[in-house]
Amino acid sequence: MSIKIGAHVDQADPIAQAQARQVPLVQFFLGDPQGYRGPDVAYPGGAIALRTAAEQGGIDLYVHAPYIVNVATTNNRIRIPSRKLLQQHVDAAAELGAKALIVHGGHVDRAGGDAQLIRTGFDNWRKAVDATDLKIPLLIENTAGGDNAMTRHLERIAGVWDAISGCEQADMVGFCLDTCHAHAGGNRLETVVADVMAITGRIDLVHCNDSRDDFDSGADRHASLGAGRIDADLLAAVVRDAGAPVVLETPGAAADHVDDVAWLRQRL
Fold this sequence. Notes:
Structural class: alpha/beta
Shape: globular
Oligomer: single chain
Number of helices: 9
Order of helices and strands: EHEHEHEHEHEHHEEEHEH
Number of domains: 1
Number of strands: 10
CATH class: Alpha Beta
Helix content: 40-55%
Largest sheet: 8 strands, parallel, barrel
Strand order of the largest sheet: 1-2-3-4-5-6-7-10
């Protein structure tokens, strides 16, 4: 089975990082993942130079939006800057030729979790998709914890998808399945690919990570492949069944990622 496998790397020189790992794709941040300051291309020569180097090297680029982006929240002081930041990252990722921008599903205010509040979160996702010029695919990622999370549980993912299904750009919104997040979030990996496909109709990217914590722990703590709590064959089966490109977000440096790629390849 020919599935592309790569890794999340430092943003300063994604091309060198890909070459050090001997992988055909990499994911990285553009700037501070915890800040509202706009995207920053650290690569020498900027976005066009990075795009050219990636094309020449045959390397696919994926950009991960900052963790703080939360377009679902009812808090205007977070939602409005989040929408702005999302558009900025879509624009920057498109300029450097990224295949997609990955963003977490976010959550509504922790102060309450009633049904109406959750529905507002779904509708805020609709508004965000309508308000954003999606020059490249936007991949919404499932998350591990939080009772008020938009994409931890399958029924919430379904709520987001129902909300955005009528958007003009709905076909530009895809799904990124994180194995650690699914396991820690309480979604059975034996069926998660089929479950997600039944809701979204697509899985565009897999974040293949083992989990340091138990099933349904709600803890987002990644582990190297084979070093965590997820059954090895089950982890490989998710990747195989999804059939999408893979990004490893596992701990360590290039040598550790080389080992993780080999581990996964052997089981595929």
